[in-house]
TrEMBL record, chain A:
This is Bicarbonate transport ATP-binding protein CmpC. Coiled coil: none annotated. The keyword Signal does not apply. GO terms for molecular function: ATP binding; ATP hydrolysis activity.
Automatic annotation (TrEMBL), chain B:
It is a multi-pass membrane protein. It comes from the Bacteria. It is found in: Cell membrane. The gene is cmpB_5. This is Bicarbonate transport system permease protein CmpB. The lineage of its organism: Bacteria, Pseudomonadati, Pseudomonadota, Alphaproteobacteria, Hyphomicrobiales. It comes from Methylobacterium dankookense.
Amino acid sequence: MVAAATLRRPAAQEAGARLTVDSVAHAFEIRGAALPVLDRISLDVEPGAFVALLGPSGCGKSTLLRLVAGLEPPDEGRIAVDGARVSGPDPSRLLVFQDPTLYPWRTVRGNVALGLEARGLGRERAARADAALRLVGLDGFAEVYPHQLSGGMAQRAALARALVNDPRLLLLDEPLGKLDALTRLAMQAEILRLWQETRFTALLVTHDVEEALVLAERVIVLSDRPAAIRADIRVERPYPRHRDDPELVRLRREILGILGQPT
Amino acid sequence: MASLTSLAGAAPHAPALPRPPLPALGAGAAWLALAGATYALPEAGDFPYTASFAGGALGAGLALPVLALLAGRLGRAGASLTHWTPWLAVVALAFLAWELVTAKFGLLPMPFFPPPQAILEVFLEDWPKLGGSILASLKLLAGGYLVGAALGFAAGVAIGWSKAVGYWAHPVLRFVGPLPATAWLPLAFFVFPSSWSASTFLVALATGFPVTVLTWSGVAGVNKAYFDVARTLGASPRFLVLRVAIPAALPHVFVGLFMGLGGSFAVLVVAEMLGVKSGLGWYLQWAQGWAAYANMYAALIVMALMCSGLITLLFRLRDRVLSWQKGLVQW
């Protein structure tokens, strides 16, 4: 199916997946008491779109991503990708975590090749892993162990570990949350470039309003727990965007107002 | 030779000049003093290997300064020699003190505290029996340790991974595990068909318990996010156990293997003393029975070398397997 040793799909398959979230509600059980985290969320993401989920920390954004990834089933409602109900994890829908969670006992190449290995795709595994490392600018680090990488490099490796599987839907759970400000800016540009080159559908969870506005075509603002959709804002500005763009500054003020923050 | 001539020649302040090997000269002097005292002083007793021991010390005393001069050209061996030179000096002084208080001045009661040359005599005369004992011990230890480590590892993974196995195994482990393996000794020797199989069982038991518990805690403590990562990437349950849980638990497993090895030494010696009629434990017992105290010390030295060697071997294996870890303790 997938051309070996390359990450680009044929043009027909290039577009990302369509994601449909239909009245999804979810609760955690903490010492016998139900703690609702998602309150009937409905959401439709077009193929190839870049959507940001913005909300206060602890509001349930990450839970929504875990449900979409298929790591847990939702209590209520339905999640579908390209019309097919999500019933478990699948390598076409990949989650990039806040922590890179690279396996310390594997080299960077071994970590990136993890998905290929797990699915028994032995052929040209190393070559595809190296191609993914080149894509994220980590060529030359294939033989290195994770503890020798900086935070930004480790997160790049985690991105490569996802991208090597040609995901059609990339779920980004605050992937830049723990990076320093400069690395963060560089990685935002990097994610944008990867999205423009490979055209997966991207769903980014963040609590950084500027990050959402610089990256996403659509910003969905969530309320405090249990999360419900407060606003769905289209950001119609060309890339690359500048954070001083008056339109973005206006949207930032608007979103902070929705979140109840002084502007 | 070039360095020797430049040393003898001019330019004492030249920066490239090698430092005179003072520590090596000191160590050499200590060995020469040992040789002189051993050979020249009259001794209270009849020790056929006094001259040989003195000769060995003389050789060490002469060789040390020469080797130290050549250390720069001997590569790693040279660096290692430089590192251990102070220790070599202290060892010579310890031998000298030992020699003086035993053979020479008779300050310690004789049959119980033999001089170094008496132990040298044991090594040179009784080596076939001593060597056979080492082999017998190693064979018993290897069998029991490998069986115990393998079963303990498998049990630990099963308990850590499967709730059902954990439910049934945990109480048994808690009840039986802390019992010292040596307590099973009387039972084992009449339940098992041979004392060899009984001893293997005891060594395996002593190894198995720590390996099981540490493997179990290692598998149970694996970062749950590692499993999330693998599951989203399409990993099967088999992949999760073999490629995620086990590698992540290996640092714990090695702690268990070290504890198990220590425990297995203790059981090995006791089993050999009480049941098996071979091995270093039996040699110790036999030597003590015949009041052959020099043989006993020789066996103790050999046993220390064997145990230390095996621990070193396990450290080497760990360094190889866990080379990805940072900050490993150096043995």
